[in-house]
Amino acid sequence: MKRIKLYMSHAIRGAKGPAATDADMQANNEAAMRAARVIRAWLYPLPVDIYCPGEVDEFVMTAAKNGLGYLTNDQILAVDCEIIKRCDGLIWYSELGPSDGAEIEIACAEDNMVPVHTLSFLSKMDLYSLQVFVESLCQRDTKTN
User: Would you tell me how many other CB atoms lie within 10 Å of the CB of residue 122?
Assistant: First the structure.
């Protein structure tokens, strides 16, 4: 099996969008990080690396903070799309609710023929479905870029 890289799309601001508070975003990121740990444990020992934006969001939130102006939301999503293009698949962790950013990430994946799998919950059935998806990706040739 080939080692693959998956992008785990999840809500950060969520349904609140621009009205989300730092506490809202932190709570969503913590939930996504917990989910990423569960997913990694479930998929072990498959040769998979999972990129979870919530795990690196301290940098992003600091750079995008009002008043600093280092990064806009559009710039952050453009970088996310560049990362997605280099991945073998995208997991949309939808349990945290709707997300404008996740919709953009999914569209980017689809536009670049990166397979997408929706993971609604962390139930055994949903995790098994994810495992089948990942195993199928591991059987394919990975991207070389």
Answer: 15
